[in-house]
């Protein structure tokens, strides 16, 4: 690797650091790079670059190397800080040290500096999670944005995410944050303003169907832009007290090595939801560090840091026996150590310090403990009615007693540890908390970034239901604006509980009971809590009975939102709500809201099977959007018209509407472009259009994905999957693999579940069946929600099982997958699932003929369980005829009477819709029948055509080749003999070019 040359640097702090490092190396006798690397726990190349690279090294690496060659890291700390002044201005002054935890500290530091994804630090209360994260944050050059969960803000939307974004915004007077926003797409600032309103106006649209995707993409884009300008890491403490939306963001967008590095701390057992979250992210390969108690040696080190080097004989053993290595208990015991110290709970260890407080200090500590979060000194002053001098003296006294956090680690007033807060609250007498909560509610409500959920919590503690109701409504609306449905539902339910039973709500509540009930339905059903659907119906009945006499826009919008989320669970209720909203909006002449209400109604009518009525509503919607001149609304109405026309069999009209929708340009809305592309390609797939036509329809949407950087948007992944699926249907698995393989290098996760499903399909076709089965097992554990998507998963699983020679497993899997389904779909999955079930049943019956009647009865039951027969002649999908022909051929095989005309007819039907692999499978089955009938020439022709069409399908090619070899067929020249007259199915017709209208 050569000599350790010094880089050419201008005189200054960086050159002084390099000179000192090389001087230390010479004084140590010039140890080899391998020796240094072995002691420092890194590679020789890393050590070489540390000595020779012109950029300053990371502190964690420098510290390890200096220690490895016999130096003192403290001697290099000031040199390193001076050399990295531009990138380390945010670092607090070094001073805190930590006992033990060397391995954990190294892991956290390296992750903050050069990691990716998520590290979760767990452990019992008092074990030192906060101390570890604080020490690691101080020792890195990366900007660490910190936030912590607190119980009082557990229902505030994206509380932790907004706190870390504010932390970055406050650094460098906002220049870094502003420059990062300037690099983001145009949709980012207004979307981000939902949760950080100080960056600008947001004007949230409650009817924006892409609002949630827009917000998640905006957060992700902002963090990426910030980290591109300066190294950035996030530290999120006490996730067991955090809001579900912040945990959801971490789980969806950062787990698995993506995005900026995140270190989180969590106490197990504090929250069932947080424990379930930890189980999921652990499965997603997030690193979990469980802090163990300190050893006796580490406890000795902690005691020396606390009380100096002079320890009496037996002190360490006695303290460790009492505290069992829990650092917080060791600290509390060390402050009041006596010769006869015995095992005692932490409350008793803290009692002497709490009993010695004067009234002013006790008041400050009580306010801080009940606030459960850091409070700015002015807020504490308001809540305690203290002057600046008196407050400063009380805070100083509490810090000296180690009850409040040190002032250099927190500028706000913060209780040192949650166990201290618990000890303070345990000593309160009845009635003592209400006045403090009342003062806190008044003080917190005047802050710049007030959290309505926090204020409502304090009014609840004060026992003031009137005030709590007002703030609870504000908290629910803030959660709605922040797209946190779970938190919103909690607030609305609490507001309903607070509603006066004997009269109307106070005028300052800002909502009627009718609207409250409608909003509760929207939040509860919309968040996926289907178990509350029955209760939602009772809320709806009461709301409709309380409908106001005069039309109001807010009331109509509440009706619309409630109807929208009920479209799948209760279509008739959705239609009724939409009708009432349309009547109100028509009277108000609000055309934009009217169009959206009509969209809710048409969707509900289609869900109820009332397609004729939906047709009339869509016509009126199109007429209204034309008069409005709103391109976005008109484009959405056209796509709805296209979908509806094709479902009703008006293919040409539907394609014309889709092409017209594609010609409309909506500036600055990439999510709508992706949505349009997804719907358009869905239609083309349903019509079995050519793969190139599907790719052409997807191009504008995929371009919008690349330009806006919204690859994690679920419709973005579905759009790419549609193109890949078209390539698979066209017999080009290699092209499909090139599309999805770059996005499926890691394990399947919720945002990439569709991509991994298509990748597994490709692996099945390419013959990598074991890998496909392993991938499908992980994919199936994710949430797919919609019935058609769940059927798609079972479809690929059954396909994999059949080619692996496991027909019984495939049959059981299909039965479990469609158990209880009663709806039908014009997607290919229901029909193809039934075909795969018939194929599996025929294979099972071939080995066990006695089961034929039972298997046939089971297949008939599965076919009849749908509200509309998916194999009926009037089925919409273009491949329905081919699917129906294959079903009949498989049933004949199941009954032991396979028929050659059925298989040849099915192959010709698959030819018409451009599905070569399905056609090849049918011809192979037909060749098997021909061989049994001793029609070798015909069998050879069928196998030769099947072999040509099965190109790229490795398992299918294998069975075709084995059939040809086992049958000892005539030579190829004999196979080309003229066909016999009078046999119309002996030579399949040439494959025509598929068209969308086929």
TrEMBL record:
It holds the Pfam family AAA_16. This is AAA family ATPase. The lineage of its organism: Bacteria, Bacillati, Actinomycetota, Actinomycetes, Propionibacteriales. Residues 977-998 are annotated as: Disordered. Residues 977-986 have a biased composition (Low complexity). Transmembrane segments: none annotated. Residues 99-249 form the Orc1-like AAA ATPase domain. Keywords: ATP-binding, Nucleotide-binding. PANTHER family: TESTICULAR SOLUBLE ADENYLYL CYCLASE, TRANSCRIPTIONAL ACTIVATOR DOMAIN. It comes from Nocardioides pini. Residues 987-998 have a biased composition (Pro residues). SUPFAM superfamilies: P-loop containing nucleoside triphosphate hydrolases (SSF52540).
């Amino acid at each position: 690797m050569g000599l350790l040359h010094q880089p050419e640097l201008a005189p200054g702090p960086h050159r002084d650091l390099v000179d000192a490092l090389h001087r230390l190396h010479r004084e140590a006798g010039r140890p080899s790079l391998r020796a240094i690397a072995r002691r420092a726990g890194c590679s020789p190349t890393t050590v070489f670059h540390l000595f020779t690279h012109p950029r300053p090294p990371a502190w964690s690496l420098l510290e390890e190397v200096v220690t490895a060659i016999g130096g003192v890291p403290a001697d290099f700390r000031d040199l390193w800080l001076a050399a990295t002044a531009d990138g380390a201005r945010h670092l607090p002054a070094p001073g805190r040290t930590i006992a033990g935890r060397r391995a954990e500290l190294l892991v956290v530091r390296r992750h903050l500096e050069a990691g990716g994804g998520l590290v979760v630090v767990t452990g019992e209360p008092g074990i030192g999670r906060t101390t570890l994260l604080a020490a690691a944050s101080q020792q890195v050059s990366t900007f660490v944005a910190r936030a912590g969960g607190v119980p009082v803000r557990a229902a505030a939307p994206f509380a932790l995410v907004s706190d870390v974004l504010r932390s970055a915004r406050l650094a460098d007077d906002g220049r870094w944050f502003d420059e990062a926003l300037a690099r983001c797409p145009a949709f980012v600032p207004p979307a981000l303003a939902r949760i950080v309103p100080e960056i600008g106006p947001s004007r949230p649209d409650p009817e924006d169907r892409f609002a949630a995707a827009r917000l998640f993409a905006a957060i992700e884009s902002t963090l990426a832009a910030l980290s591109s300008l300066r190294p950035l890491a996030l530290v999120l403490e006490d996730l067991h007290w955090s809001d579900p939306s912040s945990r959801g963001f971490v789980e969806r967008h950062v787990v698995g090595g993506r995005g900026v590095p995140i270190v989180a701390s969590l106490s197990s057992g504090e929250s069932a939801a947080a424990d379930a979250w930890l189980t999921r992210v652990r499965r997603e390969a997030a690193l979990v560090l469980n802090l163990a108690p300190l050893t006796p040696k580490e406890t000795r080190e902690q005691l020396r840091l606390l009380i100096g080097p002079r320890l009496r004989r037996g002190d360490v053993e006695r303290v460790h026996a009492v505290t069992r290595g829990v650092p917080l208990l060791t600290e509390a015991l060390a402050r009041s150590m006596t010769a006869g110290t015995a095992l005692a709970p932490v409350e008793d260890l803290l009692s002497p310090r709490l009993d010695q407080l004067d009234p002013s200090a006790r008041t400050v500590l009580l306010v801080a403990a009940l606030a459960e979060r850091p409070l700015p000194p002015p807020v504490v002053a308001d809540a305690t009615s203290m002057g600046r001098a008196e407050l400063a003296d009380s805070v100083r006294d509490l810090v000296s007693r180690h009850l409040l956090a040190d002032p250099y680690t927190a500028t706000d007033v913060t209780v040192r540890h949650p166990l201290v807060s618990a000890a303070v609250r345990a000593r309160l007498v009845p009635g003592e908390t209400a006045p403090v909560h009342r003062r806190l509610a008044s003080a917190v409500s005047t802050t710049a970034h007030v959290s309505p959920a926090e204020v409502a919590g304090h009014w609840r503690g004060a026992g003031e239901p009137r005030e709590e109701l007002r703030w609870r409504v504000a908290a629910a609306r803030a959660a709605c604006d922040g797209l946190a449905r779970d938190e919103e539902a909690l607030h609305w339910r609490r507001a309903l509980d607070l509603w006066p039973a004997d009269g109307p709500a106070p005028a300052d509540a800002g909502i009627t009971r009718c609207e409250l009930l409608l909003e509760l339905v929207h939040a509860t059903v919309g968040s996926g809590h289907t178990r509350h659907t029955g209760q939602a119906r009772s809320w709806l009945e009461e709301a409709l009975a309380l409908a106001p006499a005069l039309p109001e826009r807010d009331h109509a919008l509440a009706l619309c939102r409630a109807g929208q989320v009920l479209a799948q669970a209760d279509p008739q209720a959705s239609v009724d709500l939409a009708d009432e909203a349309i009547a109100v909006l028509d009277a108000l002449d609000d055309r934009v809201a009217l169009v959206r209400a009509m969209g809710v109604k048409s969707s509900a009518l289609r869900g109820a099977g009332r397609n004729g009525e939906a047709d009339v509503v869509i016509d009126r919607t199109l007429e209204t959007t034309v008069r409005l001149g709103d391109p976005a609304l008109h484009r959405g109405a056209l796509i709805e018209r296209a979908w509806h026309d094709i479902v009703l069999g008006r293919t040409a009209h539907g394609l014309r509407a889709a092409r017209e929708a594609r010609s409309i340009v909506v500036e600055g809305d990439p999510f709508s472009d992706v949505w349009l592309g997804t719907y358009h390609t869905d239609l083309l797939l349903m019509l079995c259009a050519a793969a190139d036509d599907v790719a052409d329809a997807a191009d504008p949407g995929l371009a919008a994905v690349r330009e806006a950087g919204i690859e994690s948007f679920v419709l973005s992944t579905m759009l790419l999957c549609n193109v890949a699926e078209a390539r698979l249907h066209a017999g080009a698995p290699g092209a499909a693999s090139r599309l999805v393989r770059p996005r499926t290098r890691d394990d399947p996760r919720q945002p990439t579940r569709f991509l991994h499903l298509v990748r597994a399909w490709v692996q099945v076709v390419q013959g990598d069946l074991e890998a496909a089965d392993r991938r499908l097992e992980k994919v199936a554990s994710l949430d797919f929600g919609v019935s058609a998507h769940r059927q798609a998963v079972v479809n690929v699983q059954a396909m994999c099982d059949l080619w692996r020679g496991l027909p019984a497993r495939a049959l059981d899997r299909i039965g479990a997958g469609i158990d209880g389904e009663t709806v039908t779909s014009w997607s290919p999955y229901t029909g193809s699932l039934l075909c795969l079930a018939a194929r599996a049943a025929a294979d099972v019956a071939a080995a066990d003929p006695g089961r034929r009647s039972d298997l046939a009865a089971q297949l008939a039951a599965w076919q009849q369980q749908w509200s509309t027969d998916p194999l009926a002649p009037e089925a919409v999908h273009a491949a329905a005829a081919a699917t129906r022909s294959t079903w009949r051929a498989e049933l004949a095989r199941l009954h032991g009477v396979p028929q050659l005309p059925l298989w040849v007819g099915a192959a010709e039907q698959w030819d018409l819709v451009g599905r070569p692999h399905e056609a090849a499978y049918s011809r192979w089955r037909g060749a098997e029948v021909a061989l049994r009938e001793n029609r070798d020439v015909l069998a050879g022709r069928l196998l030769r055509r099947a072999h040509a069409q099965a190109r790229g399908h490795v398992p299918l090619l294998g069975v075709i080749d084995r059939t040809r070899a086992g049958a000892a067929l005539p030579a190829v020249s004999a196979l080309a003999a003229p066909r016999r007259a009078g046999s119309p199915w002996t030579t399949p017709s040439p494959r025509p070019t598929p068209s969308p209208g086929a």
